[in-house]
């Protein structure tokens, strides 16, 4: 998976991001101020940089000049004004996320940037099931399986957030952009279909009183 630098001066947020990156299979380095980030950028080549703007020592805008052109950047910041967004994007950032943020959304944005920049392998494989995220095709033991659009979109969200427990409400919102209106049975129905078609009864776990998790060995 990807090698990611997390630059965030709030330790709790930095640690939370690093933990969730690890859960979905990425490797990360952590920096808590601009100088530390600069040292790491000079020592390593990253597939992605996730960076706050308001940092001690050197701010995120200034750090952009030290990020190699081939390393995409996601700004993660409390500065949500339009002028700040425009400045960040004009400096070369690939995405701009305003705090507070949902971890699931951040992981989805990370996957989207990695895919756009061809730093994601685009293939997910487990237990004889292979999902090609580029062509949106699925095979089980070499035989192509037909999924509906809704089934595939749900599958993609589970893969992007593997080993992360997702509520039914979040799955509705992220996979299909539905607002929660008190009815989440559609998620249960589609999960059952995915389990059957992909033979993933032991992979898609039910999280009691919450939702589901795609469980994948490290």
In spatial order, strands of the major sheet run: 2-1-3-4-5
Radius of gyration: 18 Å
Major sheet attributes: 5 strands, parallel
Would you identify the CATH H-level superfamily of the largest domain?
Response regulator
Mean pLDDT: 89
Structural category is alpha/beta
What's the domain count?
Answer: 2
CATH architecture of the largest domain, please?
A: 3-Layer(aba) Sandwich
Strand content: 15-25%
* CATH top level class name of the largest domain: Alpha Beta
Uncertain runs: none
Helices, by number, come to 8
CATH topology of the largest domain: Rossmann fold
Description of the molecule:
The structure is a single chain. By secondary structure, the protein is an alpha/beta fold. The chain has two domains: 3-116, Response regulator (Rossmann fold, 3-Layer(aba) Sandwich), CATH 3.40.50.2300; 123-214, Arc Repressor Mutant, subunit A. The chain has eight helices and twelve strands. It has helices spanning 11-23, 34-43, 60-63, 82-90, 103-116, 149-160, 168-176, 185-198, and strands at 3-7, 27-31, 48-51, 73-77, 95-98, 123-126, 129-132, 137-140, 143-144, 166-167, 204-207, 211-214. The strands form three sheets. Strands 2-1-3-4-5 form a five-stranded parallel β-sheet, sandwiched between helices. Strand 8 (137-140) and strand 9 (143-144) form a beta hairpin. Helix 6 packs across helix 7 (168-176) and helix 6 crosses helix 8. The longest helix is centred in the middle third of the chain and has 14 residues, at 103-116. The termini are close together.
């Amino acid at each position: 998976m990807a090698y990611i630098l997390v630059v965030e001066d709030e330790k709790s947020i930095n640690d939370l991001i690093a933990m969730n990156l690890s859960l979905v299979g990425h490797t990360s380095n952590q920096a808590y101020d601009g100088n530390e980030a600069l040292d790491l950028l000079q020592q390593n080549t990253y597939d992605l940089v996730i960076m706050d703007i308001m940092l001690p020592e050197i701010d995120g805008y200034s750090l952009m000049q030290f990020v190699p052109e081939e390393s995409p950047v996601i700004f993660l910041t409390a500065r949500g004004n339009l002028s700040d967004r425009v400045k960040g994007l004009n400096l070369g950032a690939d995405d701009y996320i305003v705090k507070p943020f949902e971890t699931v959304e951040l992981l989805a944005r990370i996957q989207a940037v990695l895919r756009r920049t061809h730093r994601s392998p685009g293939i997910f494989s487990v237990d004889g099931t292979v999902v090609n995220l580029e062509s949106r095709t699925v095979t089980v033991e070499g035989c192509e399986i037909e999924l509906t659009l809704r089934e595939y979109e749900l599958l993609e969200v589970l893969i992007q957030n593997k080993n992360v427990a997702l509520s039914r409400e979040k799955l509705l919102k992220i996979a299909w952009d539905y607002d929660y209106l008190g009815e989440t049975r559609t998620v249960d129905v589609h999960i059952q279909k995915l389990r059957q078609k992909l033979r993933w009864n032991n992979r898609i776990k039910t999280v009691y009183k919450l939702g589901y998790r795609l469980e994948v060995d490290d």
